[in-house]
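During the first year of the project, the team set up a workflow for recording each protein of interest as an amino acid sequence followed immediately by a discrete structure-token representation. This format lets reviewers and collaborators read both layers of information side by side without switching files. As required by the reporting guidelines, we include two representative entries from the current panel. The first entry is reproduced here exactly as it appears in our internal archive.
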Amino acid sequence: MTIHHISRPRSRRPGSRIRGRVPVALVATVATLGLGAALAPAAASAHVTATSPGLAQGGYGVITFNVPNETDTNTTTTSLTITLPNLKSARPEAIPGWQAAVTKDPTTDEATSVTWTTTPGATGVAPGQFQRFVLSAGPLPEKESVTFPAVQTYSDGERVDWNQAPNADGSEPEHPAPEIELAAKSDDHHGSGTAAGGEESSDTDTTARWLGGAGLVVGVIGLAAAGVAFRRRA
């Protein structure tokens, strides 16, 4: 008589499924936290801002105005006007699709504002995008900080005035005016572009970059954990 052995399916150890699922749940949580950290600075920094690394009081240098389109409609940014603190020199950088015009005081011949507008056929700054507007200017006021009130105009005619000072409690207003920090006055009034005095226009931008970097790191950790979980389950 032949005896047939019936093979039984190998049972999986009780803990194997748990080990396979825990990393997946962890990945979902980590990915969510990372995405939130990455998106938070985008919402916090959606203002017209100014940066000027290395500029000193009374000196000359380059100022960059960062202009995002934060509308939830299908309108584009077609014009930007920056009020200047009566500068002897103000030279805008050429930008494809944009034309610039500097307004001067007829009495002193000092620049009081600069306006960028889209050229015929150009669309401007679309929703979700941003544009840098660069200005070489000076001599800058001998102050620790300088504000540049701005007017952002959209294709539907809407205007947004970025001209508000910080609130009394130090918090940021809804439409803050772009502001730059200037280093102490030095013998070289033309500026050196070094790290000294090269602070960003606000602590908000610095915090945003840190949060964005943290979000990316967390995302990488999440992907690595997902790979480990997949190999264990396989």
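The second entry, processed by the same pipeline in the following quarter, appears below.
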Amino acid sequence: MLTSASEFCELLRNDIGSVSMVVRIVNEMIFDLDRAEDIEVDVADERSIPLVEVLERNCLGPQSKLLLAYTLAKSVWQFYDSDFMRIYWTTESIHLFEEKEREEEDDDESENDEGGRERSVDWAPYYAFPFEDMREVETVERLPLGKFIHRYPHVLALGLLLYELGLKRRSKKRIKPGEPATTPEKRINDNAKRIRTGVTSDKWPNIGLKHPESLEKYRIIVANCASESVFRPPTTEDATKTPLQMEEELHIEERRAMLYRKVVVPLKELLRDAGWINESGNIARQLVKGDNAMSKKCHISKDSVSETLLANTSQSFEVAPNGIQQASTVSMKAEAWLENIKRSSLAKELHSQFQNNGVLASKRIRIAVLDTGYDPDAIFFNRERKKRLKGWRDFTVKAQPVGKDEDGHGTHVLSVLMQVAATADIYVARVARDTSELQYSTQNVANMSHMMYAGRHRLTKAKAIEWAWKCCGANIISMSFGFDDEIYVDDKPVISNAIYKALQKTNQQILFFAAAANDGGNRPEMFPANSPQVFSIRGSDDTGWQQPFNPPPDYDASTCFMTLGKDVPGASLSASKHKGANVCKSGTSVATPIAAGIAAILLGYARIHEKELCQSLQFQHDIMLLSLWKMSGMREMFKNIATTMVDKWAYLSLSKFIKQSQGLA
């Protein structure tokens, strides 16, 4: 692990040849994997070149421009609400590198009278930025109503980049040092006007696309970026608000999604039509290497590199390659795991049925989450998702009437649950202010004051359990916490009693899920996960292998279930350094809401296909429903859809059930 900036710089100073050094970023820490890998493009050992210089000298072939346009658009979408957008993206902050000449071409390379050289430039973009002075007025995500004809600087900056890529050759007119600075209003308005006027020209875009429909598609893409109504919803007949009012209510994540639909997807389709994208939607260099319009040699002056921008790269700037976020491979796989559920035919059917079937609309599966609360201002909780949040109750000392989370644990847990059980109605109980309160009784009770404090928190959780089934009608209760053992209050096991009471009052038709533990063999399975009435959940990676943080299973008991619990993306607090964006976390606390969400999907599917399931499984009507809604029935269902990895370890996913459901529907 690299523990200081000097160690990182020392790593970069190591010359290991024309290969890449492999590092991994996990929980904001950099690990040197002590491994080298081959690189697709061997760039010259020279300074990077600003895109503005490349365009002025017409160094890119038309196809390279299209690849660059797609990569830039995808990067802006990916980093839309991150620190990478704190500097205005321009042709001067985007850099390219020269390709290294092949050996047989070395003898042909010669400097001309201007001291330059003829080299090809690779299209892959790099983003250079200073660590100081990172805030410009144009880099706020949305400008206020006023003297701006375009209110979204990130999108306008992308539009300007795409527009200039569509020019045959960029003008060499630049702002010279010492010239008076223009106002933000002038820069924004002039750029918007330039794009809107330019896209109407018959000579634009000159980007090498052969078919008129492709040229028109690129024109529409860039026009969308410069449009005043880029994020304005269309007017409907039954609308009670104006389009501008609806635009004002859009959350940043909703605007980001619209950017993806209006800009990134059309560009992706252009590259797909050209055969340059693989099945994952990534550019496949092996498919475009042979294209004779990729790049061309051009004169690169020794003075063409931006000395003012990259003179002290190792000290003041960071260069991010290809617009690819430096996240661990595992976290990307975890996101793909969740996406497979979201995009499955099963998820689409549940959404359609519960949304459009009037009878089913009031019969959604109900899940109660007991945790540290949630932050309603986190990016994840957009307007549509908030519709699924049906109840809130704060059981802490200073009860809040609206959603609140001071820790972030509950916010992350809730967002993970809602990614899986997207159609369920969710009820949130805040039973602790932070994780130290959640875990309070893991400490030894040393005196009466501690006993009373610990007892109060157990009473809190007991009350929350009763609220969940009695007031919310919860079908599932998710608890991402645990204790070394159950502490009695007034000689009573209050949490166990609350669970037993819930089962009694609901005719056992309620499911409890709890996190097992997170300390490997150093801690046994915790309470209430070790209760026979509760599903104890452990964590796996995206392929189903158990993780070292899991406690060992009880080999005398039934199968223990595990599901995705490693590097799972979920919401952060809006007041945190992540500003409400997704962060990745691992543990049984993360796996628990996923398991609860899987159960909710199974119950939802059973509710929709009640008759078909009875006929297919040859169950009597009442037995079928009652067994699945009870722990015994759900346990059998879990066993049927799970994969046994090793003895007693069953990996829970929906892949088997999704295939089975396709045959039943």
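For the second entry, the following points were noted during internal review. The longest strand covers residues 29-37. The two ends are 51 Å apart (CA to CA). Both points are flagged for discussion at the upcoming steering committee meeting.
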